[in-house]
Structures are given as C-alpha cells and as structure tokens.
Design a protein that fits this description.
Layout: H1 3-12, H2 16-44, H3 51-54, H4 58-81, H5 91-111, H6 115-123, H7 130-137, H8 139-150, H9 157-176, H10 185-210
Helix pairs in contact: 2-8, 2-9, 4-5, 4-9, 5-10, 7-9, 7-10, 8-9, 8-10, 9-10
InterPro entries: NrsF
Pfam family, one: NrsF
Keywords: Membrane, Transmembrane, Transmembrane helix
Length: about 210
C-alpha cells in the first residue's frame, strides 16, 4: 500500500477494504510459510517414525497446541499492526497466556522430580539443535509474513516486525513438532520458546527496514 492509497483509505472511512486485503495477503503468506517449512523439514530432518503412535497421545497435542495458539495470537496482533491506527490492546495477552501456562506447568513438573533429574528433563536430547532448527524452518514464513505486512500499511514497524517474526517462528515450531522427539513440557518451555524467539528478535531488528513503505 502506497501513501496515496493510505490517504484515500483514511478519507473514505471504510475499514472493510483494508481488512479484506489484509486477510488475503496473510492467507497467502501463511500458506507459503507452511509449505516452505514442510519442504525444509522434509529435506533436512524428516518426520519422526513413530508419529502415528505419538499422535494418539494427549501430550503430543499439548505440544502442538503451544505453537498453534502462539501463531493465532501473533496473527491476530499482526493483522492489527498491519493497519494504521488500529490498537493491538489485549492481543498481546493472547500471546503471553500460553507461555505463562507452559512455564507454570514446567515448574510444577520439575518440582515433582528429584533435583538430580531436572536438568536432564529440561535439556532433553536435542537442546543444542532445536532452536536453530526452528529458526531455519521459520525462514520461508518470515519472508512471506514480512511481504504481507509490507504490502499493507504498518506504521509501528518494530512492533509489526516482532509480531510477524513470532508468527513465522510459531508456524515453524508447529511443523517442527512433526519431527521433534522431545515430549517433556519443560523442554518446550525453554527450547521451543527460544527457537521462536530467534525470528521474533530478527523481526524486531529488521522490521523498521523491511516494513518501510
């Protein structure tokens, strides 16, 4: 969206047009980001062999729920930040709540374990590679989401970059769940969150440059 388009939009007082435009661009970006992450995962990691078995357990769906809810919250915030003058408000709470729940559950589970076993549960067997793998899978979504944001009218560029980066990281984590063997809640609360934090940080750093229109 260019300056003349923005002026015309604000003068018309019709929010439906930019909202529909936003929905189309984000739908395309999400589709491209998910497909890109799936292709990267297939090329570099593959799907865990026992996925069908583990998918029958509630714990697997609890793992999937973390990035899914964060992706919805980040999408909600990104859609608001893509339109000038639209407050984000309580949408940040939709992002904070799942993190608080996972961290709270992690503390409860760790407290119930012997002290000598806690670190092993937090580290799992893939802590060295998990955040970097998520960051790699987030690259297609990061590019696509920033394309969607830039084509609209974000005015809070750094915040829009943060929301877009988190959205990319959450989508990547959702795909990574199909490969990752870790099933401990404390592991997700540390290393999944760190993996999502990397593209979020990239969005904070690059947003003012990538989203300037």
């Amino acid at each position: 969206m260019k300056t003349d388009d923005l002026i015309a939009m604000l003068a018309s007082g019709n929010p439906e047009v930019p909202l529909a435009r936003s929905a189309r661009r984000f739908a395309l970006a999400l589709g491209c980001g998910l497909v890109g992450a799936l292709v990267l995962m297939a090329c570099f990691f593959g799907v865990r062999k026992d996925l069908a078995e583990v998918a029958a357990t509630p714990l697997f769906w609890a793992k999937v729920a973390l990035p899914m809810v964060l992706a919805l919250g980040a999408l909600w915030a990104s859609g608001r930040l893509a339109r000038p003058g639209v407050p984000v408000g309580a949408r940040w709470a939709a992002i904070a709540l799942p993190l608080v729940l996972v961290w709270g559950a992690s503390l409860v589970l760790l407290a119930a374990l012997p002290a000598g076993d806690r670190l092993a549960v937090v580290l799992g067997s893939t802590w060295r590679t998990c955040p970097l793998n998520i960051a790699l899978l987030s690259v297609p979504a990061f590019i696509a989401v920033n394309w969607a944001l830039r084509g609209l009218a974000p005015t809070r560029l750094r915040l829009a970059g943060v929301a877009g980066g988190l959205l990319a990281g959450a989508l990547a984590t959702l795909v990574y769940c199909l490969h990752c063997p870790e099933m401990a809640v404390p592991f997700w609360g540390v290393w999944y969150v760190l993996g999502m934090a990397l593209p979020t940080l990239a969005g904070w750093l690059l947003g003012p440059r990538l989203l300037r229109w």
